[in-house]
Amino acid sequence: MKDLAKEKQPKHVAIIMDGNGRWAKKLGKKRIFGHEKGAEVAEKIIEYASDSGVRYLTLYTFSTENWKRPEEEVNFLFNLFIKYLESRMEKIISKGVRMRFSGRIDKMPEDIQKACKRIEEKSKNNSKLDLIMALNYGSRQEILDAVNKLISSGKKEITKKDIQNNLYLPDVPDVDLLIRTSGEKRISNFLLWQIAYAELYFTEVLWPDFDEKEFDKALLDYAKRERRFGGLTGSDEFGNK
Ligand code: IPE
Ligand code: IPE
Ligand code: MG
């Protein structure tokens, strides 16, 4: 959405890309078919978000809970990441996208860790869009890891700033707009700290059917929201406008 006023644009958009399996099932196909289509959609949305002026885009790619899925599905997803990290993402970073990862990457298979490091390094000076892939990511784990780091450093009392500074990507600002596809209205352990004041947008559309138009709908909806952060801007002291 190019013609939105700058102050009405979200700086950080996070997406829970959900519904791949149900989409494939509806077509009488295997779940993995949905993941393949889902990855293509992600690629399109990354390009579009970058051209729309979004500065940070976080995509929920694999959660710490997704290990519960059958090994065959997990392996398929990992092979798909590798394929994207080693080829398709080259085009994306050539357009000024910086690729970053959030989550327990150290617990991922070696080849994925290597591919992540390589592309992170290669794109580190890009600044059009920070694309953050949440991979083996769980928000409770992230907060716990931050607290444990602080304990090991000898802290006796911690502040909000201390937690922020010890998140996986401390410099990334809070989420402005959180989108979840597929009709589920839950957070599923995603960015709990960072979404404290995010605007939430839920759509029934399954992720493989999501497209630029649907993304624009979310941005337009966001542009109409009045963000008060607990204050009274735009309303009187009784909450009347
Ligand atoms: C989201 O789609 C993709 C990942 C979790 C990797 P799902 O695989 O959760 O699809 P549904 O929710 O079962 O339809
Ligand atoms: C959240 O979707 C994780 C990702 C999109 C990677 P899930 O499909 O795993 O979440 P639940 O199980 O519906 O909460
Ligand atoms: Mg799901």
Automatic annotation (TrEMBL):
Which residues make up the binding site for Mg(2+)? 18, 199
| This enzyme's EC code(s) | 2.5.1.-
- What are the positions of the active site? 18, 66 (proton acceptor)
Q: Which InterPro entries match?
A: UPP_synth-like (IPR001441), UPP_synth-like_CS (IPR018520), UPP_synth-like_sf (IPR036424)
Q: Which UniProt keywords apply?
A: Magnesium, Metal-binding, Transferase
Q: Where does substrate bind?
A: 19-23, 31, 35, 63-65, 67, 69, 180, 186-188
- What PROSITE patterns is this protein classified in? UPP_SYNTHASE
Q: Which CDD domains match?
A: Cis_IPPS (cd00475)
What GO biological process, any one, is recorded here?
A: polyprenol biosynthetic process
Top enzyme class, one word, equals transferase
Which branch of life, at top level? Answer: Bacteria
Q: Gene3D superfamilies recorded for this chain?
A: Decaprenyl diphosphate synthase-like (3.40.1180.10)
Q: Which cofactor does it need?
A: Mg(2+)
Protease: is it a keyword of this entry?
no
Record note on cofactor? Binds 2 magnesium ions per subunit.
State the Gene Ontology terms under molecular function.
Answer: ditrans,polycis-polyprenyl diphosphate synthase [(2E,6E)-farnesyl diphosphate specific] activity; magnesium ion binding
Subunit structure, briefly?
A: Homodimer.
What family is reported?
Belongs to the UPP synthase family.
PANTHER family named among the record's database cross-references: DEHYDRODOLICHYL DIPHOSPHATE SYNTHASE 2 (PTHR10291:SF0), DEHYDRODOLICHYL DIPHOSPHATE SYNTHASE FAMILY MEMBER (PTHR10291)
What is the recorded function of this protein according to its Swiss-Prot or TrEMBL entry?
Catalyzes the condensation of isopentenyl diphosphate (IPP) with allylic pyrophosphates generating different type of terpenoids.
Spell out the protein name for this chain: Isoprenyl transferase
